[in-house]
Amino acid sequence: MRYLIITYILKPTGQSDESVRVEDKLTKHLKTYANIILDFKTREVVKARMNEPIPRDWDKIYYYFVNIYPDIFNALENANPQEPK
After folding, report:
1. Nearest by Cα to 49 from 63, 32, 65, 62
2. Is residue 74 included in any domain, yes or no?
3. 17: which strand partners?
4. Is residue 85 part of a domain?
């Protein structure tokens, strides 16, 4: 478990579904279709795009989603411990 991948799928009604998955590796398909990709090993925003690009600010994106998916974030952090600075 290294990457958090969030994809939004637009439905014909105009609403969107949010798909969340955790992966060890990134494929070309994931890089192409995902909206948000967070790398928990390097603490890097690999991709951040909604209808247009959004700033790749780790803290802003992290703190937005951590409250929505606390169990997933906890598992990713435990699998990718950071060395003290």
Report:
1. 32
2. yes
3. 9
4. no
